Amino acid sequence: MFVLRERKPITSVSRATAILRSVCPVAAAKGNRIVHEFIKWTATEAVQRLQNGEVSPLELISAAETRIAETNPRINAMVTLCFERARERARQLMQRRSGALPKGFLHGLPIAVKDNTHVEGVRCTSGSRVHEDLVSPASDPVVRRLEAHGAIVIGKTNLPEFAAGGNTFNDVFGATLNPWDMRLSASGSSGGSAAALAAGQAWMATGNDFGGSIRTPASFCSVSGLRPSPGMVARVQKQPFNPLSVEGPMARTVADVALMFDAEAGFDARDPLSPRDPLPSFAVAAARPEKPLRVAVSADLGIAPVVDCEVRAAIAAVAEKLAAEGVAVEEAHPDLSDAGKNFLTLRGAVYIARVAPLLEKYRAMLKPEVVQNAEFGLGLKLTDLVAAEIAQGEIIRRAAAFFEQYDLLICPATLCPPFDVTWRYPQSWDGVAFDGYMGWLELTYAITMTACPVMAMPGGFTKAGLPIGLQVVGRPKGEEQLFSQAAWLEALLGYAARTPVDPR
């Protein structure tokens, strides 16, 4: 178990109902019912209504504020709110003259941003006491791009310290609880974003993914998210050719993820991996569902030490549904036998740059796993790093050859359903012990090593009603086809409509 300090209040939201009445007379007449109508809209529907003038950005901001006031005390997904900033941005956007708008324009849709991503003038802690009082002097490139495309930031979402680990807790704000069962983890590191989406606090949220930080929270909270190909969403990093850590969109449906990705993806001269514009419209691709012809399915990728029986059953059920629709389904996966050890080596090199400089001054303030990551990196030899980079090149080429035969690879996003939130991480499952605190994440970080795009999406539920998520892996740089085929699969499975949920 872990022990956390008393979390600090985020900001006052007690005036949410009064604000809603002042900007939305309809809501005043109908009470909270209209708020719940708003939060049940998909992002795609909300943007369409914003574009048509049926609702204003200010109304959606107030609806989100009311929903956060109702649900956040129970799940602790949003940790810093910035509604005054959001309303000022909304007014500026509403006064803007209509003209040529960029593809993927969001027309004032409120979004949430993960608390390791800078938003100008807003607190950014990265879940660490080291940065507990940091206020961002400037916005991250992905935030600037989203705001330029008409998104409005309403607040920051919780994460583990420095995004390290698959359970969202830290000494600044405490733990984020899973809306499907508040005794359980929302996973991590984008656990706050996933929980906020599942509870209807926002229509879209940013995430970033290294070893599964978009995919495992999406799985635990039954929402969707994309781990894109490296560089598709530009990042300004200390290590500019790092293909492991990516920025990606999170939402409740595949179409909503595509809409956000249209606003996020594109060229930035500061990121040598970013793609040249113009890119296709991923929202258009998602709006044109396409049945895949040949799909590989694997419950364990040939590497997981154990997979929960209900997770295996969910993967088998997906395979049966695909086959019933005439899709050629085969049990297969690329050779990922060396992915785990080489991922951990390359991850260690990244931690040298990100965290090792903090050890001398702040070691006592950092959680043990962060210290261990940095020390592991510092203990690596140059030959270890070169060998791991060469090995990743081989993995990427094996995956490329694999996708010459298959349209998609479908596997679990996690090897177990949501676990007790008081666990730092699962040390074992079904009597099988894991190697270290990353051991239970092997299904996601092995896929990271392929550099292929991955859609995380709902794939079923346990008998106890807990979410089970899928990784739907597409061809290299194949986001357009992935969105189209994932939208078809989403319609086939029919799970996306189950969110938002009231925390329980």
Task: Name some characteristics of this structure.
about 500 residues; alpha+beta; Amidase signature (AS) enzymes; three-stranded mixed β-sheet; 18 helices
Characterise this structure.
This protein has 504 residues and is an alpha+beta fold. It has a single domain (16-498), classed as Amidase signature (AS) enzymes, CATH 3.90.1300. It is 38% helix and 15% strand. It contains 18 helices and 17 strands. The chain has an eight-stranded mixed beta sheet, sandwiched between helices. β11, α12 and β12 (328-331) form a beta-alpha-beta unit. α3 (33-40) packs across α5, α5 (57-75) runs antiparallel to α6 (83-95) and α13 packs across α16 (382-402). The chain is globular.
Strand order of the largest sheet: 8-10-9-16-17-13-11-12
Question: Tell me, what is the CATH class?
Answer: Alpha Beta
The description of the largest β-sheet is:
8 strands, mixed
Give the terminus-to-terminus CA distance: 22 Å
Q: What's the number of extended β-strand segments?
A: 17
Quickly give the structural class: alpha+beta
Q: What value does the Rg take, in angstroms?
A: 21 Å
Shape: globular
How many helices? The count is 18
